Amino acid sequence: MKKTKQTFAIALAESGTAREKKFFADNKLVAALEDDDLAYKQLKIWNRHINKEPETGKQWLPNYHTAEPKYRLWHWVTADAKRPSGFSLSGTSANFCG
User: What is the 3-state secondary structure of 25-86?
Assistant: First the structure.
């Protein structure tokens, strides 16, 4: 797989749905979101974009019935005045079902 530098704009253009493209084109809607909601929406698009096969354009899906390694995106929200608890969405896991 050829590795290239990507921007969110490229990921959105290539892998975003029509509804997501319309949403991110409206700056008022984007500005109204909380930071964690915006990060979630962007991560969904990044995940879809990263898992797209460049040769075929087809979405890669893990085969949970093999020992194939499986990885998931994750991020941390650090504790601060706005979010005093802090949390992580998920850790990287390999072969959790295999």
Answer: HCHHHHHHCCHHHHHHHHHHHHHHHHCECCCCCCECCCCCCCCCCCCCCCCEECCCCCCCCC
